[in-house]
Amino acid sequence: MKKQNKPFIFMILISVILSISWVNAENQEADAIAYREAYNLVLNESWGQALKSLEGFIKQYPYSEWHDDASFWKCYTQEKLNQPLQEVFACYQNFMRTCPESRWEDDARSALIRVGERLAKSGFPEYEALMESLIEDEETDVRLEALYALADSESEAALDSIIDIYDQSEDIKLKHHIIDMLEDFEYPAAFQKLKDIALNEKNLELRRVAIHTLGDMEYTNALKVLQQIAEKDPDTQNRREAVYSLGDMENPEVIPFLGRLAEKSDDPKIAAAAVHALGDIESEKVIPVLEKIIRSSPSIDIQREALYALEDIEQPDKALPILKNIVMNSKDIDLRREAVHVIGEIEHPEALVILTDIIKKPGDVGVRRAAVFALEDQEKREALKILLDIAVGNSETELAVTAVYVLEDILEENQFVAIFQQIYDQSPFIEVRGACLEEISDLENKEAVNALAAMAKKESNDELRRRIVMELGNTENDAAVPVLLEIAKKDKSLKIRAAAVEALGDIGTPKAREALMEILKEK
Known about the structure:
Elements: H1 2-43, H2 47-60, H3 67-80, H4 85-98, H5 105-121, H6 126-151, H7 156-168, H8 172-182, H9 188-200, H10 204-216, H11 221-232, H12 236-249, H13 255-264, H14 268-280, H15 286-296, H16 300-311, H17 316-329, H18 333-345, H19 349-360, H20 365-374, H21 380-393, H22 397-410, H23 416-426, H24 430-441, H25 446-458, H26 462-474, H27 481-490, H28 494-507, H29 510-522
């Protein structure tokens, strides 16, 4: 029978796929037809009908490739219908905000200026400033196009012209773009100009752009400029930008400087930026510097930053011993826990060995629990073995319960019942067994109900039996109703029967309510 069904199922599958494709093609054709119909009304100057058709199109086809076209012509027809100028202006303004890449963007800008000028002349002076801004933007865009065309030549004469324009202009947007252009010129004059802007420009925003651009350049002298700014600039944000730019250069020569800054800076923001920058430099020379910061920095926050910078080091075999030493020997409990977390994030076989050693070594249970949680990010098969061993064989309840909760995050769903039943059967601790019951009930399916029902029949401990009954209710599954009904009617313990009634109430389905009514009738 199965062999006969396969061709039939296959044909159904093909027909469904084809029908989906046909519908998509039809929809794509439909939006093009609908747009053409609306656009023809515009061409025929049937403004009222065109507006209605365009609004309908926009609503029906929000993701059509013609959506921006329809949106522009909607504004245009509103203008032609002499609708209130404020509404027309708002329509064009919204179009420019939502469709910045549209081919109609320039037309919308011109229309916005046209309508704005009419509003300003009609007694709405607030539109004058908007018009001036739009006209200025248009002029700036034209100048930018000319500048980029000039910069493309990458000639020394072009560079001189661009620098002259920067010096003469008061347009911040234009200057911002010129700073970006300077990076592409390989002449010393480009570097000198960027240096001058980074050190002396009155506008802080432009100085920061220049600082960032210096970090992208390959000039050796850029290091000295950025170091000068990082140490002495009166603006903290500029100093931080310089520090980050030093890290972006990934030059090992800057490691000692950043290390000193991280250890000795009076500004915690600068110190933290220095640690981040060290983490961006791919060199093993960074490792001892970060270790020194962790050991000697007076700020716990900076120590943490250095810990997390070690996580990104590309030589985990050299970073892991440092982290292990911190976990095992540091007097700061919080720092030890942070180090455990970082170890867990490092994908390396030695990380798993270190976490296991931490768990086994007597000491602060919070640190050891952090190591159990960190197993979640390690290789799953090996982590599963260790977690099972902790859950079943560890004599410390807190660690065993933690292992159960971590198992939830690494097990496949089809493993839940078997694994948690195994732990339940082997663990001597009620807390651990209770955690297993929670994990099983969280599945909320028939397999969970069957497992809990079987456990209820076998369990002799009344407290655990009551927990099982409550977890049956937490499944919120109708499959649990007959099990709970039988317990509510026949169990010898009044407490457990009451728990079964409460669990039926937690399920709350019509079938559960019928069971409750049946119990009431018997009473």
